């Protein structure tokens, strides 16, 4: 893929600030949303814990910095709050393990990545390319985008709520088209920041419609309680200073329960980690699985996630939105990601910025995500353009992965005594990968 700025290039500082802001906008809504959702989870006595979105933003920034420097400044991607662990958070909070249960669980998930990295370092990572050739990696990367499509369309049509409105759809589609127009018809400088232009345009339209009482798209009441400066409520501080009623001691039994909840999710997340880095490799024309190596990206992701959990209560993960932003803008400069990470950390203390970001309507972000998630899906499909789909062996592999993934096929085992749901559930992405691998190696040619 043609890049305007390569990984080691350094755009002018003033230009880089704009690029960094675009990265921040791309990842921020989802990063802030995860702790908001977590704050609704209750312990058995009805007590809820508070996870501060500003703290999650700080945790994402510092986790990203660790990832960038551990991967030798070769992998330009931002780490943001992961939605994958939401079920685990709900279970652990429901078990009354409180803040420490969440922090320890995220740390355990990060440790899984470190252990896998050590194993890969010992045996080499060449097997990854053999295990996930384009016929496997392509549709898996496509699924990463397609599996998020319902989020994009849901936000666009219902603005994060439960009621459908054509006004929301109109604002979301307007935002999407503004991004497309800027990216294709804009000036040379505007083509580099299509998401800032599109989201800003969508926000203005949403604000006008709100002020004219056409539709209550933006909640303006939050500005009344806005403060200029505030220290985020870091999760580790909450864990030390607050002991909600019903909090259980963290003993050997607790550690075991937490491990059973978090470790399986971390293992199956390996598929998304590899898929993301395959996708990014394709975007920047460098094989990140080889250099800096999968062992380094895993440690960067795992420890970066643990750091994010310690400060912000939410595990981090590599963000497809960040990669799509790199691809569409043509800017893969590491300096931009570093500046975005530092910016997130600083702005987490600045109340007006976080408040404004929180007021960006979901329908506006939904329109932006149509472009972001769609680009991830197309990037995956582009990886299989040299795959011969006239060969039934390849056709069935790609078909199995796409149908299982898009259809939402999961594998569930056991019963959780607290929630009544399954004890372990493999995501549709992990299930699609397993089915695809089994299909591929059952029908491969004899060597």
Name some characteristics of this structure:
single chain; 447 residues; mainly alpha; two-stranded antiparallel ribbon
Describe the structure.
The chain has helices spanning 13-38, 53-70, 86-94, 98-123, 126-131, 134-146, 149-158, 166-185, 194-211, 235-241, 252-268, 270-284, 289-312, 320-329, 334-347, 351-359, 362-382, 392-407, 428-442, and strands at residues 79-81, 316-318, 411-415, 422-426. It is 66% helix and 4% strand. Helix 1 crosses helix 2 (53-70), helix 7 (149-158) packs across helix 8 and helix 8 crosses helix 17 (362-382).
Number of individual domains: 1
Q: Describe the largest sheet.
A: 2 strands, antiparallel
- Give the SSE string: HHEHHHHHHHHHHHEHHHHHEEH
What is the typical, i.e. mean, pLDDT? 86
End-to-end gap: 34 Å
Shape: globular
Strand segment count? 4
Which structural class matches the secondary elements?
A: mainly alpha
What is the number of helices? Answer: 19
Uncertain runs are: none
């Amino acid at each position: 893929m043609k890049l305007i700025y390569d990984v080691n290039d350094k755009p002018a500082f003033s230009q880089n600030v704009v690029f960094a802001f675009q990265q921040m906008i791309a990842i921020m809504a989802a990063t802030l949303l995860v702790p908001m959702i977590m704050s609704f989870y209750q312990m058995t006595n009805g007590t809820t814990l508070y996870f501060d979105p500003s703290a999650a933003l700080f945790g994402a920034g510092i986790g990203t910095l660790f990832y960038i420097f551990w991967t030798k400044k070769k992998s330009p991607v931002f780490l943001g709050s992961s939605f994958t662990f939401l079920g685990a958070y709900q279970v652990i909070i429901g078990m009354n393990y409180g803040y420490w249960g969440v922090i320890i669980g995220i740390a355990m998930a990060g440790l899984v990545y470190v252990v896998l990295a050590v194993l890969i370092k010992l045996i080499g990572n060449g097997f990854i390319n053999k295990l996930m050739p384009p016929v496997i990696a392509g549709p898996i990367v496509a699924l990463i985008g397609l599996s998020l499509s319902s989020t994009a369309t849901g936000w666009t049509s219902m603005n994060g709520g439960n009621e459908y409105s054509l006004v929301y759809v109109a604002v979301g589609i307007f935002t999407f088209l503004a991004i497309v127009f800027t990216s294709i018809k804009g000036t040379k400088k505007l083509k580099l920041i299509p998401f800032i232009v599109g989201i800003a345009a969508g926000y203005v339209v949403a604000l006008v419609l709100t002020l004219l009482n056409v539709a209550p798209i933006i909640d303006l009441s939050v500005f009344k309680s806005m403060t200029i400066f505030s220290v985020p409520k870091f999760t580790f501080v909450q864990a030390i200073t607050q002991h909600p009623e019903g909090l259980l001691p963290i003993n050997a039994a607790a550690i075991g329960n937490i491990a059973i909840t978090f470790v399986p999710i971390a293992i199956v997340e390996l598929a998304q980690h590899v898929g993301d880095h395959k996708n990014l490799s394709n975007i920047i024309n460098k094989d990140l699985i080889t250099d800096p190596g999968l062992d380094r990206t895993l440690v960067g992701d795992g420890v970066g996630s643990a750091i994010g959990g310690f400060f912000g209560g939410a595990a981090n993960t590599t963000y497809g939105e960040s990669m799509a932003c790199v691809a569409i803008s043509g800017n893969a400069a590491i300096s931009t990601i570093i500046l975005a990470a530092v910016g997130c950390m600083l702005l987490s203390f600045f109340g007006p910025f976080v408040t404004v970001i929180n007021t960006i309507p979901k329908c506006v972000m939904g329109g932006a995500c149509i472009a972001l998630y769609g680009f991830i899906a197309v990037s995956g499909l582009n990886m299989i353009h040299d795959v011969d789909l006239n060969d039934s062996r390849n056709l069935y592999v790609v078909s199995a992965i796409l149908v299982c993934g898009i259809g939402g096929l999961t594998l569930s085992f056991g019963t959780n005594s607290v929630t009544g749901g399954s004890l372990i559930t493999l995501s549709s992405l992990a299930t699609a990968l397993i089915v695809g691998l089994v299909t591929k190696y059952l029908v491969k040619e004899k060597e």
